[in-house]
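Narrative of activities, Objective 1.

The group set out to show that a structural description can be obtained from nothing but a protein's sequence at a throughput compatible with the screening campaign. Below is one input-output pair from the validation batch, recorded exactly as produced.
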Amino acid sequence: MFHKWVFVLAAVLVVVGVSVALAAETEGKAVDEAKLRYFSITAIVTSIGLALAAAAGAFSQSRGIRSALEGIARNPGASGTITTAMIIGLALIESLVIYVLVVSLILLFADPFSLL
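Output recorded for this entry:
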């Protein structure tokens, strides 16, 4: 499981590196170095942040579901209450991953150089 995440992260970093190199090669001197550096660093940081958030969210959700199923197995009469609390908790965990996605998209598509 851990090796799969490392492989995916390495593939993303290779794709980002190749795309930055191709962009620099095709546009030559016209590309401003600061813009290129900002985009490459932002792409790497946002991909790593999103991968970590997704992994942490999946791990937290699996632990929450496991605990809910153990609680239902111990007390089947409380399954409705446990299920409701579990669904609310899973939605809150998933919202944290979505927040990371939104921040990553803002960092990727915002152009801080347009203010200069």
